[in-house]
Amino acid sequence: MKKILIAAMALFSATIASASDNSLWEKSTLNEIITRGELQVCLEAGYMPFDMRDKKGNIVGFDVDIAKSMAKAMGVKIDLRNTAWDGIIPALLTSKCDLIISGMTITAERNLKVNFTDPYIVVGQSILLSSKLKGEVTSYRDLNNAKYKIATKLGTTADYATKRYMSKAKINLFETESEGALEVINGNADAFVYDLPYNAIYSAQNEGKVVHLDTPFTYEPLGIAVRKGDPDFLNFLNNYLAQIKGDGTYDKIYQKWFASNSWLKNVQ
């Protein structure tokens, strides 16, 4: 009798666990994407070479190609949803998209609100410097002085890094990267602090107008953000990133956007 009872309890527990697993899968974003037939991606077009618009108005870039490759692997269409940076996490949390892939640095503060995949690329902060200060300023430490004006983008890790490492300087915050960088060229700021990839491209476009101090002074892993409580989706994304890094797909995309600047002529 005891053995029968134990067997019955085990069967009952297995049934409950199976029902629970099915319930989790039905609620998974991954299941919703497959059922819908479309991957909805939040990003902010304006961060070269990750997310930007070409001359035809299409959103293109490193992140975009990874997202398109992912949608193809899922067998679904893709919907790129351009979203202002200050509202991009709220958009994800209110299910206006399935994930965020937009050059987003993994931070503890953000991780309290969303879950992140393993890093798909690592970048850091660098400095675009006024050509007038060439030789006078050689690192971020030199800019930690009240006589300097520094521009950066509001609400980004560049914003936090500038306030942390250059707190003595006058810091001006802007809504977009291009606005902040332009302040240096126009003589309204001594330096612009932002992610290395963007600064490298911007300095190449404005050779002679700015000096790029291209040694990163922070370590910043970028990840894909998803809503919490969805292990199936997070598992898929991490495995997918590992797969494309192993089969050459990632390297092909990386070389396109970071090892060449031929795409510059096609962007706005």
UniProtKB/TrEMBL annotation:
Keywords: Signal. Residues 38-260 form the Ionotropic glutamate receptor C-terminal domain. Residues 1-19 form the signal peptide. Residues 38-261 form the Solute-binding protein family 3/N-terminal domain. GO terms for molecular function: ligand-gated monoatomic ion channel activity. It is found in: Cell envelope. PROSITE patterns: SBP_BACTERIAL_3. InterPro entries: Iontro_rcpt_C, SBP_3_CS, Solute-binding_3/MltF_N. SMART domains: PBPb (SM00062), PBPe (SM00079). GO terms for cellular component: cell envelope; membrane. Belongs to the bacterial solute-binding protein 3 family. This is Transporter substrate-binding domain-containing protein.
